[in-house]
Amino acid sequence: MSFxxxxxxxxxxxxxxxxxxxxxxxxxxMWSNIIYLIVPIFIxxxxxxxxxxxxxxxxxxxxxxxxxxxxxxDEIPMILVTTEFFNMYHNRTPLTRKWWFYTLLYMSTIWxxxxxxxxxxxxxxxxxxxxxxxxxxxxxxxxxxxxxxxRNNYYKAFVCMGVGKISWEIEQRYCDKNPDLYVLHGLWxxxxxxxxxxxxxxxxxxx
Length: 207
Known about the structure:
By secondary structure, the chain is mostly helical. It is built from eight helices and no strands.
């Protein structure tokens, strides 16, 4: 019997539930979120720090309870983090100098978030987040073209993010055949947290 009773989340992760305590659903996926509490210590951007901390606390509560409202507290800040990075790239590439780019970005983000919250379209969230990552990769490549230090951290950031996202997908797709793949979700947490920090360093060195 768990403290949280029936799960309400839209997605199920691989890790066995409530093995160590009736208070914690996925212990390993929960504690690996510590990276999101550490990274903001080294980032000097108030909004970005707030989004990362909210995401970290939300993910801790989500993996600890499997509840839908904590899932939203985890995943909506993920979109806010990527959107803040777009803001940090403002006027640094031909695309990010266009007013219509940010209009489309904000409108699509707002409406996809509304549909996710009220209709539970989890695949829509995953699609929007993946598109944000791919677009950030394209913009970052352009913005760091002539700056070796920025380019170096940019490459490291997206290697970490890429390996982390692949780990996330493998855990989701092959969990039924190999339950031990649950460790890959914790790897996603660590690599995405490191990626956020490296991308921040890359953008800061553009100044």
